[in-house]
Design a protein that fits this description.
The complex is a heterotrimer. By secondary structure, chain A is of the alpha/beta class. Chain A has 2 domains: about 170 residues, Globin-like (Orthogonal Bundle); about 110 residues, Transcription Regulator spoIIAA (2-Layer Sandwich). Chain A is built from 12 helices and 5 strands. In chain A, helix 3 crosses helix 7 and helix 7 runs antiparallel to helix 8. The longest helix of chain A is centred in the middle third of the chain and has 44 residues. By secondary structure, chain B is an alpha/beta fold. Chain B contains 4 helices and 5 strands, in the order E-E-H-E-H-E-H-E-H. In chain B, helix 1 runs parallel beside helix 2. Chain C is of the alpha+beta class. Helices cover about 40% and strands about 30% of the residues of chain C. Chain C has a 5-stranded antiparallel β-sheet with strand order 1-2-3-5-4, with helices on one face. The longest helix of chain C has 22 residues. Chain C is globular, with a radius of gyration of 14 Å. The two termini of chain C are about 15 Å apart. The mean pLDDT of chain C is about 95. The chains are: A alpha/beta, B alpha/beta, C alpha+beta. At the A-B interface, helix 9 and helix 10 of A face helix 3 of B. The structure holds adenosine-5'-triphosphate and magnesium ion. Adenosine-5'-triphosphate (ATP) binds next to helix 2 and helix 4 of chain C.
Chain lengths: ~300, ~120, ~140
């Protein structure tokens, strides 16, 4: 199993879709001596005519050693087309290359453009050496099939890696949109700002629960002063969060309840009687400290 | 039905049951019986059920735990459920299951403190 | 993007132990595909409820576990099938709080709230099928 979740079953259906038959693989294996004979020349031409000619692709090769490593890898990569197999380990191999390309910043256009160039170079040589017979056409078709088969894997790797990055960004945003702050030892504050939809309400609940357990907090203050609309749905999410926090063995204090919110809650018939609520964050904090056996005292002058 | 799979320790007048194994329905049922028998035998005043080890609690198990607390209470023992994991709490409330009447605490120490408080209040009343 | 099935696993349910095995298989799959702990717990709880419904209300049946991929993210789909008595009034059974087994009646309604997709089909005298799907979150 790998990142793209490719199984034997999936491999078989992929090969069927690309019409990459055992006959194609046999033909490719038979071409191997030809490929070996031309490989060095092709890859060298490939670098001279394409990669090193364009400023943007040349940028990947800052020093001679990197270039040499890349050329060697390139030679192996092309020869593997003629290995006569297209099994799971072949695919994994291709996947790895795709991941590396993605990581070092080889954009899909460089990869695809380079592959197209390679196909032209090798076709020209094959036609020159073996003539435009039906047999040669057949070989070229096999080569084309496996190259497209390869490219599909590479493109999917790019997409998967992109989504991965997106998921990481979303997790970061999620973290930012529910910033749990420790006010005192075992007293946390989550200031909620902006609209709360079902997905965000779930994130809020999960984040609150994780932080409460992580910090072993006794009280968490949810401040909703920055939430523009508090309707029945939002109220129910808050109730659920409160109940879940109670199950962990901690308490919730809801603050920032404006006159409008109080009115809506009562008119909607939402029962907030089971919750600790306060109008302002200051009052909520006093309550929270009281719940943890502390109080704020004004110092006598 | 196999009983005794979940050890129930006695600390003074408090019983401590720590659930460390994957709970199946029959284990949960025999756990309830074991707990009630232990209460009868030890004349305990408090019971702590530690569920830190449970990565999943479905409504059947949640109900057994809630019921066990209610039954213990009838026998004069207060129950505190401790160590519920975040994902367990989230799942239960999303399913609409409320463990009404069950005392909860973050960990065993807090559970003991809560029991002392509950018993103190009872003693005074 | 259309969902693609990467693998399928069929398991019978005829006892409590079978329910435990199904739930372990589903948890292992969810974890392998990178589900977070909240999503795994939700999914395994849903599976336990539906598996238990089979052996409580229908005595025996099957669970078909499928590993999905929609091109963007992995998913898990589990179908619970039985040839039991069926559910005469689906709305009643789904309402939450209703039970013919003097239980809480939170299994079906609760499960629906834990998953991304919930499909119930039932015919009296022929059996019941419940299919749930959960996707990994972005
Ligand atoms: N597989 C099934 N075959 C037949 N009837 C079913 C099946 N699953 C559910 N039902 C019916 O639907 C009702 C509601 O199911 P649900 O799982 O919500 O509650 P329950 O199983 O009765 O109680 P709980 O799951 O809360 O312990 C059941 O009481 C039963 O009548
Ligand atoms: Mg049920």
């Amino acid at each position: 199993m790998n990142k793209l979740g490719i199984t034997e079953q999936e491999l078989a259906s992929r090969r069927a879709y690309f019409q990459l038959t055992d006959g194609d693989l046999t033909r490719l294996a038979a071409l191997r001596p030809f490929a070996e004979r031309h490989n060095d020349a092709i890859v060298d031409a490939f670098y001279q005519e394409l990669i090193l000619k364009h400023a943007e692709s040349r940028l990947f090769f800052t020093d001679q050693a990197t270039l040499q490593r890349a050329v060697a890898a390139q030679k192996r990569y092309f020869l593997e087309l003629f290995s006569g197999v297209a099994d799971l380990s072949y695919m994994e191999n291709r996947l790895r290359v795709g991941t590396t390309h993605q990581r070092i910043g080889v954009a899909p256009k460089w990869y695809l453009g380079a592959y197209a160039h390679y196909l032209r170079l090798i076709s020209d040589r094959l036609l020159a050496e073996q003539g435009p017979s039906a047999e040669t056409q057949e070989k070229l078709r096999s080569l084309q099939k496996i190259i497209f088969f390869d490219m599909a894997i590479a493109i999917e790797t790019y997409i998967a890696a992109g989504l991965d990055a997106l998921a990481r960004h979303q997790a970061a945003i999620r973290e930012l949109s529910t910033p749990v702050i420790q006010l005192y030892e075992r007293v946390l504050l989550l200031p909620l700002i902006g609209t709360i939809d079902t997905a965000r309400a779930m994130q809020v609940m999960e984040n609150v629960l994780m932080r409460v357990v992580e910090r072993q907090a006794k009280v968490i203050i949810l401040d909703i002063a920055g939430v523009p609309v508090v309707d029945t749905r939002v109220a129910n999410h808050l109730l659920q969060t409160t109940e879940a926090v109670r199950l962990l063995g901690a308490s919730t204090v809801l603050t920032g309840i404006s006159p409008q919110v109080a009115q809506t809650m009562v008119q909607l018939g939402v029962d907030l009687s089971k919750m600790h609520t306060r109008a302002s964050l200051e009052e909520g904090l006093e309550l929270a400290l009281g719940l943890t056996g502390r109080s704020i005292r004004v110092k006598e002058a | 039905m196999q009983s005794g799979q979940i050890p129930i320790l006695r600390i003074g007048t408090t019983l401590l049951a720590s659930i460390q194994i994957e709970l199946r329905d029959t284990t949960a049922q025999s756990f309830q019986e074991d707990v009630l028998k232990a209460i009868e035998k030890s004349r305990s005043r408090g019971l702590i059920i530690d569920i830190t080890g449970l990565d999943m609690v479905d409504t059947f198990v949640a109900r057994i735990l809630t019921d066990t607390g209610r039954m213990a209470k009838l026998m004069g023992t207060e129950t505190v459920l401790v160590g519920m994991r975040p994902e367990v709490a989230a799942t239960l409330v999303r399913m609409g299951f409320s463990m009404q009447g069950v005392h909860t605490a973050l960990n065993v120490d807090e559970g003991l403190a809560l029991l002392a408080q509950l018993q103190g209040a009872q003693g005074r009343a | 993007m259309a969902a693609r099935v990467l693998s399928t696993q069929e398991m019978k349910i005829a006892s409590e132990d079978d329910v435990v095995l199904v739930r372990r298989a589903v948890r292992a799959l969810a974890e392998r595909r990178g589900f977070d702990s909240f999503a795994s717990a939700a999914l395994t709880t849903a599976v336990t409820e539906l598996g238990r419904n089979i052996w409580v209300h229908a005595r025996s049946g099957m669970a078909i576990i499928e590993e999905l991929e929609d091109g963007l993210r992995p998913g898990v789909r589990v179908e619970f099938k039985d040839l039991g008595p069926g559910i005469p009034d689906i709305d009643w059974a789904m309402a939450g709080g209703n039970s013919t087994a003097s239980s809480l009646g939170l299994g079906l309604s609760g499960t629906k709230r834990l998953v991304d997709d919930f499909q119930l089909q039932s015919e009296v005298g022929r059996g019941t099928s419940v299919r749930i799907t959960k996707w990994k979150r972005f």
